[in-house]
């Protein structure tokens, strides 16, 4: 079966600089790849040799006249969201595999940065890939069907989560729920609560992410905490 291909805007590294790391942004519902790629110029000075790409989600948004979605959220039930993430996962995995191959990189040289629904996809895919990536950063998102993780987890990359406690879209409590499930399943996780922040990314959250990217993505060798196959 043919898997739908996706693509989106790119940034860096500077001309003539070889690519040694890859950051993939995963946008939220109703946005597109142009949304999060705006973070790349802010992060690239801290991450030399890093290529940034922000693919457009594969489906038109069914709750707005424009924008894209990884899966529908008209049904916000855990079962429906999980089914949507499962359906979109092969598309995202194919994109990640192609991007890594294009640059001659391995999963340990990859970081995923998601926002909202993009965080849901980043967590769903990264924890089930055969090899752990360097880092997953999730803003204002959630872990879909956390009770299934024990049976499905394959890789345990470090995860950092940031969430505003005034988020009217994805409940702030979703961060604690994700943190608990990740810890129970031996996935390294660090969280940052942002007082007064709604559904968004603020300067403190971006700095939190940048420090983690410097620590994990720029490491010469992946630390043991990054885990691996649960075989």
Could you give the topology of this structure?
Blueprint (H helix, E strand, L loop, with lengths): L9 E2 L9 E6 L6 H4 L3 H4 L6 E4 L5 E2 L7 E2 L8 H26 L6 E6 L1 H10 L8 E5 L9 H4 L6 E6 L8 H12 L4 E6 L8 H15 L14
Parallel strand pairs: 2-3, 2-6, 6-7, 7-8, 8-9
Antiparallel strand pairs: 1-3, 4-5
Walk me through what this model shows.
The chain is an alpha/beta fold and 231 residues long. It is 32% helix and 17% strand. The chain contains seven helices and nine strands; from the N terminus they run E-E-H-H-E-E-E-H-E-H-E-H-E-H-E-H. The strands form two sheets. A seven-stranded mixed β-sheet has the order 1-3-2-6-7-8-9, with helices on both faces. A two-stranded antiparallel ribbon has the order 4-5. Strand 6 (110-115), helix 4 and strand 7 form a beta-alpha-beta unit. Helix 3 packs across helix 4. The radius of gyration is 16 Å and the shape is globular. The two termini are 28 Å apart.
In short:
With 231 residues, the chain is of the alpha/beta class. The chain has helices spanning 33-36, 40-43, 78-103, 117-126, 149-152, 173-184, 203-217, and strands at residues 10-11, 21-26, 50-53, 59-60, 68-69, 110-115, 135-139, 159-164, 189-194. Strands 1-3-2-6-7-8-9 form a seven-stranded mixed sheet, sandwiched between helices. Strands 4-5 form a two-stranded antiparallel sheet.
Name a few traits of the molecule.
single chain; 231 residues; alpha/beta; seven-stranded mixed sheet; two-stranded antiparallel ribbon; 7 helices; disordered C terminus
């Amino acid at each position: 079966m043919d898997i739908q291909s996706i693509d989106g805007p790119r940034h860096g590294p500077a001309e003539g600089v070889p690519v040694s790391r890859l950051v993939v942004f995963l946008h939220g519902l109703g946005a597109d790849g142009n949304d999060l790629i705006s973070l790349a110029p802010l992060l690239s000075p801290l991450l030399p040799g890093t290529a940034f790409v922000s693919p457009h989600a594969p489906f038109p948004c069914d709750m707005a006249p424009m924008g894209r979605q990884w899966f529908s959220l008209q049904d916000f039930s855990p079962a429906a969201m999980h089914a949507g993430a499962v359906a979109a996962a092969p598309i995202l995995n194919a994109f990640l595999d192609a991007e890594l191959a294009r640059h001659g990189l391995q999963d340990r040289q990859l970081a995923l940065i998601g926002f909202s629904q993009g965080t849901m996809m980043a967590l769903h895919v990264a924890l089930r890939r055969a090899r752990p990536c360097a880092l997953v950063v999730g803003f204002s998102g959630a872990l879909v069907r956390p009770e299934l993780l024990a049976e499905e987890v394959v890789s345990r990359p470090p995860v950092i989560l940031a969430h505003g406690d005034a988020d009217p879209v994805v409940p702030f409590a979703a961060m604690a729920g994700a943190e608990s499930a990740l810890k129970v399943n031996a996935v390294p996780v660090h969280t940052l609560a942002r007082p007064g922040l709604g559904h968004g990314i603020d300067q403190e959250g971006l700095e939190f992410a940048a420090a983690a990217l410097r620590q994990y993505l720029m490491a010469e060798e992946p630390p043991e905490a990054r885990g691996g196959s649960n075989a």
